[in-house]
Amino acid sequence: MPKILLINYGVGNLRSGKKGLEKAGADVEIVNGKIPLTEGDAIVLPGVGAFAEAIRNISSQAQNIKDIVNSGSPILGICLGLQLLFDKSYEGGITNGLGIMPGDVVKINAKVKLPHIGWNTIRILRTNSLLENVKDNSYMYFVHSYFAKPTTSEFIISSTEYGEDFPSVIAHKNIFATQFHPEKSGKIGLKILKNFVNIVKR
Amino acid sequence: MLSKRIIPCLDIKDGRVVKGIRFKNLMEEGDPRELASIYDEQGADEVVFLDITASFEKRKILLEVVKRTADSLFIPFTVGGGFINLDGIREVLASGADKISINTGAVRTPSLVKESSDIFGRQCIVVAIDTKRVYFSDKPSKDKRELTTDQGKCWWEVYVEGGRVPTGMDAISWAIEVEKLGAGEILLTSMDFDGTQNGYDIPLTKAISESTNIPIIASGGAGNPEHIFQVFDEGNADAALAASIFHRSIYDVSEVKKYLKKKGLSIRL
Fold it and tell me: What ipTM goes with this model?
């Protein structure tokens, strides 16, 4: 059974992420402090909470996470976890992120109610193993006011419209990320977690 | 496109569901986790647990229920009832709730809304507002936002303690205030319409939806799918909460959603 390290940065609910990944066939370990470099087959950065607070809590592990990603282990960022992968965020001032993906995290600019809360559809732009057997226009559960803008559009696997288009699934090599919460998106969300576990198995 | 949400609500006392539930083979008093799973199967977009446990000691039972539910439910769920401080909120979130709903605690201690949203993010803080109409026959009110409804001119007063205690506060002004304090959503209940199954309070929902810039969950009065359509179409609600029509199996969630989709709303089926 592939082992997944679920990184706890103290601001979110890890329970559903853990259960979702377990249901998808993974052995999940919640990591509170130092991330063991060799043990895990993959890392998941879960996500609710504020960007600055989360980055502060994992700053001591930033190099560790980068080393793991550079070694080729799969990483999945969920919601805030997706945003943390990027260079910097404009949420409540400017805060540097992990810098694993090139680009910035910006606020939804359209005249819409924020946070963007609820079920919205994804438009699949590129095939990616994370979205295997996931139909175009599937509904996913979103809760956020900010989104990540990669410098290269090639990294955008799906987009979602809420007043404006924003990337909802981002991937590059062994790096995968969703702006929505697959662990809260019912059966189709669990399918995505299962796809990630399958990627880890390969 | 963002879909309109349908949210069944379960009243929970000492860890059990306490409304007149009549699912085919289930007991009158149901297990919250099982019932939540049934709603999930039927296509509910979220589930709300409203804890009406009287004694504080029995609150631990709720935490167990939240844990068991979080482990088997893969759609969002909100827990409301009796939150008065950060520790209580933290416990329920740590047990697996996605959002918490604050009502009396927000009125008594507005800073609780701000502090909790600063720590946990505004997306997990729902402020519940229970309202009742105050009609004017001749006497106009100062500093109250009055509107003309089919039943006459009125303003809406905020009630706390499970609808038992009037506060004198104007609901529209309070809604604007809680958004400023950091609420991510407003769960808006009309006590006049709740349980009547005669439809939601449309003027109230519309007024609050248009006065704020956060999602509004309308509650109180759903008796049929057309009522839910009206609160979305005319009331500009973002989500509709209903209890009786689902509990009594008058309508199943998927049936309601199909109806709404047919009427042209954006609905997740």
Answer: 0.90
